[in-house]
From TrEMBL:
<dbReference type="Pfam" id="PF07687">
    <property type="entry name" value="M20_dimer"/>
</dbReference>
<dbReference type="InterPro" id="IPR010158">
    <property type="entry name" value="Amidase_Cbmase"/>
</dbReference>
<feature type="domain" description="Peptidase M20 dimerisation">
    <location>
        <begin position="270"/>
        <end position="364"/>
    </location>
</feature>
<dbReference type="InterPro" id="IPR011650">
    <property type="entry name" value="Peptidase_M20_dimer"/>
</dbReference>
<protein>
    <recommendedName>
        <fullName>Peptidase M20 dimerisation domain-containing protein</fullName>
    </recommendedName>
</protein>
<dbReference type="GO" id="GO:0016813">
    <property type="term" value="F:hydrolase activity, acting on carbon-nitrogen (but not peptide) bonds, in linear amidines"/>
</dbReference>
<dbReference type="InterPro" id="IPR036264">
    <property type="entry name" value="Bact_exopeptidase_dim_dom"/>
</dbReference>
<dbReference type="InterPro" id="IPR002933">
    <property type="entry name" value="Peptidase_M20"/>
</dbReference>
<dbReference type="Pfam" id="PF01546">
    <property type="entry name" value="Peptidase_M20"/>
</dbReference>
<comment type="similarity">
    <text>Belongs to the peptidase M20A family.</text>
</comment>
<keyword id="KW-0378">Hydrolase</keyword>
Length: 488
C-alpha cells in the first residue's frame, strides 16, 4: 500500500490524500513510501521524481557551516562572504566535527582513514562497497562557499532525503569528505584521494609539509584528532561508485544557458619547461641581424603555442617566465618559460606537442612558420630545449555513471532538458580523477556566476545548488538500481 508522508517543514501546507500534493510554500512533492520502506528496484521513474531534496535545508546548512573559515566579504548579502578554510586547520576541524555529527544523527557508520578522509555509510539491503557522493570541505586561502563544499552538503542532503522518504537502497550509499583536495596549505592537490587510489604513497601524504610552517599533514591530523585507523586504500576501503557534484569553475554552462553538466571526463594535461638559449649582448651596439635574442624568440614560441592550440582545439598557457640576465640594456641570452597544454584527448595533446617540438626550433632559427617571422629582422637564431615536468593523461568517466547523471538531470528538468543538460569535460582536476581509476565515477557540474572560482565572490545560486543536489540524488539512486539489476 502506498502511503503519503508530509515533509516536516511544511506540514501546515499539506493535505493528506492518495495523490502526491505540491506544497505551495516549498514547491515540493510529498515523499513516498511503498509499504514500510521504498526500495530503489521497485521505484518507477515517477517514484524517483518524487524523492525530492529540501532545497532550503541544503542552502541553510551550507551557509551555516561557512561560519567556520570566514573569508573576505564581497557583497552586501549575509552570504556574500568568501572562505578561508585551509585543510586540517581549526576551522576545518569544526567543519569535520559538524560533518561527523550530522551523518551520525542520520544513522550512518563513520570511517576515518589514515589521511583523515571521512566516509559516512548508510546501510543498504545488501552488503557491498557503498555508492558515494564525495567532495571536499577545505578551501583555497581566498576561496568561495561552493567549490567542494556544495558537493559534500549535497551528499548529506541526499542522506536526509532518503531517511525522510523512507527509501531503502539495495547497496549502502554514503558521503565522503576528502582531505586536502585543494593542495593550498599542503601543496599536493587531491592528495588524500591519491593515497586512497595508490597513486601517492601514504608516507608522502603524511610527510607533506605546509607551505609556510613546520607542520606536516600527519602532525596536523594528529593535532585535530582526524588521523583515522582505516587504511587509506582502495583495497581495504573500497568504493562501489563515486559521484561528485561540483560547481563548473568555468563559464561554459552559464554562457550556453545550460543548467547541468554531465561530466564525461577530465582533460589531459602536460606541463613543460621550455628553455631558449641565445646570447647576451648590448642593446645599443648589436644590430638585429647579429642578435640571438632569447626573449624575442620565447615571445614568438608562446604566441605560436597559442595559435597551434587554437587551431587544434587544445589549450596552451604560459604562467612562469624567467629571463637572464634581467637588465634593460642587455638582450637576454637565456629564457625559461612554463608551457601548460591541455586537451580532451591524449592523442590530440601528443599531436600538438609533436607539432610544436618540430616547429619551435624553426621559429627560433628565424624561419617563417605560419605567420611567425613574417615581419621583423632575422637574427642569428636560438636553441630550444624541452623538459616534461608533469604528465596527467585524460580521465574518462564511467559511461553508466554518466548516463545516470544525464537521466537524472533530464528527469528533473523535464521536456526542455536537451539544451539544459550538457555533456562536458572538466578542465580542472578533482578527487573524482583518482576514484575513477578504482571505481565507476562521474561528476555533475552546475553553473557558477561568470565562471569565477577560487575567489571570495564565487557564487552558485540557490536554484543551481538545489538542481545539482537533486541530480546527484537521482544519479545515486539510479546507479543503485542498476547495481541490483546487474547482480540478479
Ligand atoms: Zn573543488
Amino acid at each position: 500500500m502506498r502511503s503519503i508522508r508530509p515533509q516536516s517543514l511544511c506540514t501546515k501546507f499539506w493535505r493528506i490524500s492518495s495523490q502526491p500534493q505540491r506544497c505551495q510554500f516549498h514547491k515540493r512533492a510529498f515523499s513516498i513510501s511503498v509499504g514500510r520502506r521504498t526500495s530503489t528496484v521497485d521505484m518507477t521513474e515517477e517514484d524517483l521524481a518524487k524523492v525530492e531534496i529540501d532545497r532550503q535545508r541544503l542552502w541553510g546548512e551550507l551557509h551555516k557551516t561557512c561560519e567556520w573559515g570566514v573569508g573576505e566579504r564581497w557583497g552586501e548579502n549575509p552570504t556574500d562572504v568568501g572562505m578561508h578554510r585551509l585543510a586540517l586547520s581549526d576551522d576545518d576541524k569544526k567543519a569535520r566535527d559538524w560533518f561527523v555529527a550530522a551523518v551520525q544523527n542520520l544513522g550512518c557508520e563513520v570511517k576515518i582513514d589514515a589521511m583523515g578522509s571521512i566516509f559516512a555509510i548508510r546501510p543498504g539491503k545488501k552488503a557491498g562497497p557503498p555508492t558515494y557522493a564525495g567532495s571536499h570541505l577545505d578551501t583555497q586561502p581566498t576561496g568561495g562557499r561552493y567549490d567542494g563544499i556544495l558537493g559534500v552538503h549535497a551528499g548529506i542532503e541526499m542522506l536526509r532525503t532518503l531517511n525522510d522518504g523512507n527509501v531503502e537502497t539495495e547497496y549502502p550509499v554514503g558521503v565522503i569528505n576528502w582531505t586536502n583536495e585543494e593542495g593550498a596549505r599542503f601543496p599536493i592537490s587531491m592528495v588524500a584521494s591519491g593515497v586512497w587510489a595508490g597513486a601517492v604513497s601514504l608516507e608522502k601524504g603524511h610527510n607533506l609539509k605546509e607551505v609556510n610552517g613546520p607542520a606536516t599533514q600527519k602532525s596536523e591530523l594528529e593535532r585535530i584528532k582526524y588521523l583515522g585507523t582505516t587504511e587509506a586504500s582502495h583495497e581495504v576501503n573500497p568504493i562501489g561508485a563515486h559521484f561528485e557534484l561540483h560547481i563548473e569553475q568555468g563559464p561554459i554552462l552559464e554562457a550556453s544557458g545550460g543548467k547541468i553538466g554531465a561530466v564525461e571526463g577530465v582533460q589531459a594535461y602536460r606541463w613543460y619547461t621550455v628553455t631558449v638559449k641565445g646570447r647576451d649582448c648590448h642593446t645599443g651596439t648589436t644590430d638585429f641581424r647579429n642578435r640571438s635574442d632569447s626573449m624575442l624568440t620565447a615571445a614568438k614560441l608562446i604566441l605560436h603555442s597559442h595559435n597551434k592550440a587554437s587551431e587544434m582545439g587544445c589549450l596552451a598557457s604560459t604562467g612562469i617566465l624567467n629571463l637572464k640576465p634581467g637588465s634593460t640594456n642587455t638582450v637576454p641570452g637565456s629564457v625559461q618559460f612554463s608551457l601548460d597544454m591541455r586537451s580532451k584527448e591524449n592523442s590530440k595533446l601528443l599531436e600538438l606537442e609533436e607539432v610544436l617540438r618540430a616547429e619551435f626550433p624553426k621559429i627560433a632559427a628565424g624561419d617563417v612558420v605560419d605567420c611567425m617571422n613574417m615581419a621583423g629582422t632575422k637574427g642569428r637564431g636560438c636553441e630550444v630545449e624541452w623538459r616534461l615536468d608533469t604528465d596527467s593523461p585524460a580521465t574518462k568517466f564511467h559511461e553508466v555513471c554518466v548516463k545516470c547523471v544525464q537521466e537524472s538531470a533530464e528527469a528533473m528538468l523535464g521536456t526542455a532538458s536537451t539544451s539544459l543538460v550538457r555533456k562536458m569535460t572538466s578542465g580542472a582536476g578533482h578527487d573524482s580523477v583518482y576514484t575513477s581509476g578504482r571505481a565507476p565515477t562521474s561528476m555533475i557540474f552546475v553553473p557558477c556566476r561568470d565562471g569565477v572560482s577560487h575567489h571570495p565572490a564565487e557564487y552558485c545560486s540557490p536554484e543551481d545548488c538545489g538542481n545539482g543536489a537533486q541530480v546527484l540524488l537521482g544519479a545515486v539512486l539510479r546507479y543503485d538500481r542498476l547495481r541490483a539489476e546487474r547482480a540478479n
